[in-house]
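Many introductory courses stop at the sequence. We go one step further.
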Amino acid sequence: MSASEDSARREQGTAFMPKFDSHGLITAVAVEHATGALLMLAHMNAEALGKTLETGFAYFYSRSRGRLWMKGESSGHVLKIVEIRVDCDQDALELRVEAAGPACHTLAPSCFYRRITDEGALERIAD
């Protein structure tokens, strides 16, 4: 199959063909299904994606720890998968989830709890 045929199949077809980067990772964003709120961004390798599809709970690959982890494995704040969406060229995933508690390890509801002010400082966003 030529590169253009592969690209057309990935972008227009019905086959799930995740496009992992040179490190074997794909970007995944977790979004609260009921509200559309952006919860977190992480990365998945093939094993994490497989475990997520198999169990219905979000698994990721930790680049800093070099290992697979299940979101909420120690806190209990798991992300239950409702639906997984894939972008046009299948190199990013949107995990539509039901969150069992705060998504961020800081206990903020979302990892995106600060914004950049006009002065270039960080300001906490009210929950």
